[in-house]
Amino acid sequence: MTRTNQERKYSVRQLAGPVVTTPAGAVRGIRDDFGELYRAVPYAAAPTDARRFAPPAPHPGWSGVRDGTQPSSTAPQPARDFGRLDMTPYFGPGWVRGGEYLTVDVRTPAAGDGERPVMVFVHGGGFVTGSTSAALYDGSAFARDGIVLVTVNYRIGIPGFLDLPGAVPNRGLLDVLAALGWVRDTVAAFGGDPDNVTIFGQSAGATLVGALLATPQANGLFQRAIMQSGSGTGAFTPEQAHRVTVAAADALGVEPTAEAFSSITDERFMEILPALAGLDLRTGSATDPLAGLSPFGLVLPSQPADTLADGPARHVDLLIGTNTEEGHLYLVPQGDLESSTEADVLAIATRVYANPETGVAAHSAARPDATPGELRSAVLGDALFGAGTARMAQAHARISSGGTHVYSFGYRSTALDGRLGAAHTVELPFVFDLADKPWLHGETGLLGPDPAPASLATRIHAAWVSFARTGDPGWAAYDPQHPVTEILGS
């Protein structure tokens, strides 16, 4: 078959290792004790220049055998600082420059050998950071247990989520949708069953999974979904998104259009991010769904929890839950848990509740001995994840022919003098069965200096694998009339 010049530029040298032939071309990976790993496999064309604001386009393919042994470049992103806490395993290497970052990594027990359950993971990072290269997303344990794991890079920040006239909205979400199409058409070559796909995500990734449950174009692309610390009510309204767009255009000195933004470099986009931090996005009808932590996210006229009937949710099993001290991640590493005042509690409540005094009073009644810092953490966790998770679980259970299973993760990390607790992200090492890794431990490691309970990692990872295989994680389904929540960790 004759290749075009555009296709030829993706040709790469041949390397030793297993080779899989996909519709776009052949790719060579790595074989190790856990099976095979194929890295940086494109699912869409490089989103460069004006294409940063266009829907994902099919990849043109390549000749020869592509090198799938090296990590992908990553979406443009700023560095993130979490004070004394080492979040490198979560955020990964940061911005690794290169236009072709709409890629997936595939971990498989063996390519072309059987029809194994497939799990597709969507990373978090506040819609502005993250990549498949993060150490926490090592899929070795999933491959060990017979799962084909696909991890997805997608557009983030301004290219991924800024709502621009002349550009298709929610481009990062469309990328994930395109990756699911790639899985349907390609995963069999890697030993996966395209009719047994579970999509799962954490934080922003979980919120994207929630949106896919309400997206008509996602029908038939996955059979099960897992939302870890996400929200079914985390989308901005068009009015809120417009405020961010105007602020970004003002900071750049250009018109707020896709045409004007297409000539701006990614480096310049990074430079203006501080000017967008802390925007007041409250309106007469909506509070800030991301509590001021990110100006970017989904932009929808209605929240996914209210529109599940429009998408595949009715026929999809759902596993969903949160951590018991989500908000600690945003306070403990910075030293703000102890220094918080009642005024700080009211300030965050004003950002996220229509009736802030009532919201604070409810948390105070539930935690009569809580310090201001603990109340501030509770308000953050509820606004970002808790309330939206509850809404999504209830909505799914009401309409779904599949099961709804709810969990609460309570294991307390001993990081930062034992104060980090069951914070946002702490469940990830248990899901990926990596809780014994040295780089997660120490005083500033995510899990702290104490050994993590191996039995809990075994239990949680096994529950996720079981859910992907059968739709049953090992505990009773949730019913709004008889709600069942499984406690994972104390």
From TrEMBL:
Residues forming the Carboxylesterase type B domain are: 18-475
Give the InterPro entries listed for this entry.
Answer: AB_hydrolase_fold, CarbesteraseB, Carboxylesterase_B_AS, Lipase_GDXG_HIS_AS, Type-B_Carboxylest/Lipase
Q: Which molecular function term from Gene Ontology is one that the record holds? A: hydrolase activity
Q: Where is this region: Disordered?
A: 50-83
Query: What's the EC number here?
Result: 3.1.1.-
PROSITE patterns assigned to the protein according to its UniProt record, in alphabetical order: CARBOXYLESTERASE_B_1, LIPASE_GDXG_HIS
What's in the keyword line of the UniProt record? Hydrolase
Q: Which Pfam families match?
A: COesterase
Name the protein family. Belongs to the type-B carboxylesterase/lipase family. Belongs to the 'GDXG' lipolytic enzyme family.
Q: What is the name of this protein?
A: Carboxylic ester hydrolase
Q: Which organism is it from?
A: Actinoalloteichus hymeniacidonis
